[in-house]
Specification:
The protein is of the alpha+beta class. Helices cover about 55% and strands about 15% of the residues. Strand 2 and strand 3 form a beta hairpin.
């Protein structure tokens, strides 16, 4: 690609590799720093030598990769919060003496509790640092905003580890939080919470106060709760009030991304401002002033939305792109995009693990790289045709880039995403513009009712259209199995294929066909991998066994419990294994699996079966048995207690097993058991 700076791309990839390798490098930050310094000195010396000798050296390229890989490792090590001596994980103190925290970010609430990121200032009287997750039970306060950003609170509650997932293939929230630098959580009621200080200290705090005033400006007017939730999500990045049904409708329509303020919103604002300011001309001073103004407005929008991580990424990315546009060089946008990724990763290496970062950069990269191919195919002259062809080509280009990754993470594909984009994207800029106008007029109490009603009608139409699209359930393809291998192979095919479309050559054709062959081999390999596993799953107050056998999933449960009750446990199997069909089976008291004999003891308490020596005993439905007698009868057994038992019973059984030196597994504590 002419004008594209491949050097920036290579050093960004090297930095990325270093960040990904960092967890596997058992060296201190100091040792990595020394290696990094030596690498830079050797690289600089090699550069001088090759420059004065006017020779091309492969050694310089290798040293560049090694240097920036070591820089990536160093960056990751230095930003690891556990390397701080005052971090709460490095301080040994009681977890039951209360904590002092400062709220840093308001998160989307869960079903039962509101959630916040907070800085842990003090634990059990000792000064600490580090980020924790705070749960505030929903019946405690009416609105999560009553816990202010920058507010300091004493929490009279235990600090606990973040639990691992209880069942196979479920989303690992513990690992996700670990990558965000969160290792512990605190759950509180309102009577365990004491306000110490609510003084605003940071830019994020001032942004939260400003945003709260904007929210109040529309809450006091006649807007229904559903529309208000969408307005707050679209314009302020606040998704706390969005209902589950509304989220599901937008996801099914392929438009969930418009509810999360990110690159799409920032990009639309940048394009709108460019469109409005273009008539001013292109003199040097006008171009410079326009660029400065647009970048300023991008960061003002980031301030309004509270400097959320997604908006910060997008604001940084589009600021660099705007600078690239100003210099008006070929592929300046692509160069700016890659350079912004390099800068962001250098200052916050954990971004690479965030799905939003991956999707937004891939989408913009493919739009810049692939969309010109569509423009070459057809460049209409009429405005409406040009508008819809532009939206169509942008949507397809972005979808090509993010499709493998989005299926890998979300295991679904909205078949009507193109229809949604063609209808909504042309008016989204108008909705955002009107929304900003409504918010600011409301803030100064000069908002006319007719303007509010028009905007309210626009949001109602948006929601109704989304609900209509989501009603075509058969066109939302769910539970798609897509492994990491298929993810890598998909991009190995897509990238050379795009190069082939851009410019045909025999070499590119062979590369593309080779990639296609690799895809076929990968598909055959995955089909040949058959698993045969039996699990005791964790489900509160219920018993559930699942047997995975190739493309069949046998689900064992009580006949009185409908299968829909286990969707949260079954769906991850459909999305991450080869299982395509589900067979319901009645839960039995005896299993034989891979030469293991398994006895299930339910509420009837029957277990003395003649001539039967089980390897495992699964206790379900709180049987009233004497575990000492059971162990005496089966001295070599392993005991498993599932989630259908009373916790008090499980505690007693565990104590007995420890006393008798019998292996014991509780799904309450350790999650599922796999035979």
């Amino acid at each position: 690609m002419k004008g594209f700076n491949y050097t920036i791309l290579f050093i960004t990839i090297a930095l990325l590799l270093g960040i990904l390798l960092s967890p596997y490098i058992n060296l201190s930050a100091l040792e990595i720093g020394v290696i990094c310094l030596i690498s830079f000195v050797v690289l600089f010396s090699t550069h001088l030598y090759t420059f004065y000798k006017r020779i091309n050296s492969w050694l310089f390229a290798v040293l560049t990769v090694v240097t920036f890989i070591s820089l990536g490792i160093l960056t990751s090590k230095l930003q690891d919060p556990l390397n701080t001596a005052s971090h709460y994980e490095n301080i040994h103190c009681s977890s039951q003496s209360g904590a002092i925290v400062t709220i840093k970010e308001v998160l989307k609430p869960g079903i039962y509790a509101k959630r916040f990121y907070a800085e842990l200032n003090e634990l059990a009287g000792k000064k600490t640092s580090g980020k924790v997750l705070v749960y505030l039970y929903k019946d405690s306060l009416e609105r999560s905003e009553e816990l202010k950003v920058d507010g300091t609170y004493f929490l009279a509650a235990d600090i606990a580890k973040v639990p691992a997932p209880k069942n196979p293939y479920q989303f690992n929230y513990k690992n996700y939080l670990k990558k965000q630098g969160v290792y512990k959580q605190i759950s509180v009621n309102t009577n365990q919470l004491y306000v110490l200080n609510t003084q605003v200290k940071t830019l994020k705090g001032y942004a939260a106060v400003f945003r709260e005033n904007l929210q109040k400006s529309i809450e006091n007017r006649l807007i229904n709760a559903k529309n208000r939730a969408v307005i707050e999500a679209l314009l302020l990045g606040q998704r706390q009030e969005l209902s589950t049904d509304l989220n599901e409708d937008y996801a099914a329509a392929g438009m969930i991304h418009i509810l999360a303020v990110s690159g799409l919103h920032v990009g639309i604002i940048m394009l709108l401002l460019q469109f409005l300011l273009n008539p001013l001309g292109n003199t040097p001073i006008i171009k410079l002033s326009r660029t400065v103004f647009i970048i300023t407005m991008i960061w003002v929008f980031a301030f309004i939305t509270g400097f959320s991580p997604s908006v910060l990424r997008a604001a940084t990315m589009f600021s660099f792109i705007q600078i690239g546009i100003y210099f008006n060089r070929k592929n300046a946008g692509l160069n700016a995009l890659v350079f912004s990724a390099f800068v962001l990763l250098l200052f916050n290496s954990s971004l690479i693990y965030e799905v939003g970062f991956q999707l937004s950069y891939l989408a913009v990269f493919f739009i810049i790289w692939v969309q010109p191919l569509f423009i070459k195919l057809w460049n209409p002259q009429f405005f409406l045709a040009k508008l819809f062809w532009g939206i169509f080509s942008v949507s397809i280009a972005a979808q090509i880039g993010v499709l493998p990754l989005s299926i890998y993470y979300f295991h679904q594909f909205p078949g009507l995403f193109l229809v949604s984009n063609l209808v909504i994207l042309p008016v989204l800029g108008l909705i955002l513009s009107c929304g900003v106008l409504v918010l600011f007029l409301g803030l100064f109490h000069i908002l006319p009712d007719f303007v509010l009603q028009i905007f309210n009608f626009m949001i109602t139409c948006l929601n109704d259209f989304i609900s209509w699209i989501a009603s075509f359930e058969n066109l939302v393809f769910q539970h798609i199995t897509f492994s990491a291998l298929m993810l890598v192979v998909s991009y190995l095919l897509i990238i050379p294929f795009i190069f082939l479309l851009k410019k045909y050559s025999y070499k590119r054709l062979i590369t593309t066909l080779t990639a296609f062959l690799i895809l076929i081999i990968a598909l055959i390999f995955e089909k040949s991998q058959t698993r045969s596993e039996l699990y005791v799953l964790h489900k509160n107050r219920q018993s559930l066994f699942i047997e995975e056998a190739g493309q069949k999933l046998a689900v064992y449960h009580r006949d009185s419990i409908p299968l829909e009750n286990f969707d949260n446990q079954i769906n991850p199997f459909l999305e991450n294994t080869q299982a395509k069909t589900i067979e319901e089976e009645s839960l039995q008291n005896y299993f034989r699996f891979k030469r293991n004999e398994i006895l299930l003891i339910d509420s009837t308490g029957i277990y003395n079966v003649p001539h039967f020596k089980p390897d495992f005993v699964v206790l379900t439905e709180s049987p009233q048995i004497n575990l000492d007698r059971l162990i005496k009868l089966y001295p070599n057994v392993k005991v498993i207690a599932d989630g259908s038992n009373y916790r008090s019973y499980v505690t007693r059984w565990k104590a007995t097993c420890i006393k008798k030196d019998i292996p014991f597994h509780s799904t309450y504590e350790k999650g599922y058991y796999e035979f």
